[in-house]
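Q: What would this chain look like folded?
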Amino acid sequence: MDAAFAAEPIYEALCRAGHEVWSIGNRASDVLAAKAGSRWLKQDYSDVHAVREHLNRLQIDRVVPGCTDVSLETCVKLGAPWFLGDSFEVNAMLSDKASFRRLCAELNLPSPQVVDVNSFPRAGRFICKPVDAFSGRGISVFDGTDGAGLQAATALGAAGSRSRKYVIETFCEGPLFSCSAFVIRGKICQAFYVREGSSANPYAVDTSYVDSGFPDDVRMLLQESLQKMVSHLGLKDGLLHTQFILNEGKPYIVELTRRCPGDLYSLLIEFSTASPYAAQYAACFLGEAMPAGASLLQSRQVLRHTVTADSGGIYNGIRFKQPEPTKAFFSLLPVGALLLPQQGNRAGVLFTEYVSHNEMKDAFNRFMGRTAYAVV
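A: My prediction, written as structure tokens:
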């Protein structure tokens, strides 16, 4: 349920497993529209009725969400027999930011707290988010004593929401991480911890690496919290991807999704650990056993960065300011295209690999500081 570049590893994993795979999307320029050929459906997959007609006509057995919130939402609405994931009610509780905050409070999970808009003015910094947006859209941080700042934040949050709703939370400072875990028979069986950073847009991740040395005590605390949620909701088998902030040695859960993250996150895990992340993700939606990972997970020092421009211009390539050991580059723009500033669009996704963890952390700081390359 996605034809864009980020879903390509999922598509390839399904093909390698011997399945007949169709892709669906409304852009002929998407990579899976070209790869799938006659098995590409030109269709806006947010139209659940139209998608259902395609599934019946083609006698499709299963649907697999791609890397967008809408793809998961459509799969959930389609339900059985095509979709083997969570129910509509459970998905709504996880995907709506206000509902998710209420769930965290009910289960006493470590997370930011919801703040009533009528409680202002009050001291402190706060963050306002649309309840149903993604990629950092409509998010802003404001001072609780600033009335004009509150008005601007709520207006931006409402404008970024399909439902015109927003949620205000306490602002938690600290480094951002993600935990990508797989739930099997009600238990968290495998988890990858990734350090995440936002160099161009403070609310959209563009730089990350697998943190193989993530502290065990924080890992245990977070996974205990997630396990409580899994048991409470009766989550189905599959991915459980959580973003959290590390503050004074304690994880604070920001948000959670059951779809595959975008910008080739799956390849970051596979390059770093040799675990077949995309194949494992897809298998759960087919009702199949997850492919076994490597018996001893590798720990390679791979960095992922989404290449964007600080100022607009005609894209011709990128020039590194010092040598970077490039592992792979996935281009998203042709030469001569207009490259927009501040993540208005993306030139590509870059993977670099380093000899040591310290070298990779130094590179992370370069990319985060926007000093690693220039877009030309």
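The mean pLDDT is 94.
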